[in-house]
């Protein structure tokens, strides 16, 4: 499976979002962190900004909803222009129904797990998804240190994906940088969200390329990737 890089605009200059999106046009996705100050203790942006951003860039938007009641709100982000919408299983009342609704509206359906949420209870849900997000920090703020203790969870998730023969992307978000991305790729991740590791650099496009090269190198020698 191809490595994909999704720079997070949480670390970008919010006053210059259109320019910041253009600065990473070599990326596969633009990761948009939506926070409501209820599910997580931070407030960022919502549907109107996603609508504007979708008009300002050709890079597809990967919206990560760290919000309460995603069953109500997630479909609106598809309508606003998101190509992928991630909801948290901890917040969703009916995750299968929600994933199907997101797909029916034309976007990729993704489900996120906080660090303390195990993957095993959700094994039967995996075929309903296009991507699974393993949080490698507690959601809510950018710039946090990567949690190494999530690596076994990434490995177990990759094993479940392989067990069921699914074409399911495995995304990691939180503390992903040049110093950590290889470990994530080796463990089984193939989609990488990076905030400060991209927008904290002088040349964000070069940072994306450097992250991609490291992840591709680690994936090429990873046991899980053999045969893909």
UniProtKB/TrEMBL annotation:
Substrate binds at residues 8, 64, 140-143, 173-175, 195-196. GO terms for molecular function: D-ribulose-phosphate 3-epimerase activity. It is an enzyme of class 5 (isomerase). Pathway: Carbohydrate degradation. CDD domains: RPE. The active site is at residues 33, 173. A divalent metal cation binds at residues 31, 33, 64, 173. HAMAP family: RPE. This is Ribulose-phosphate 3-epimerase.
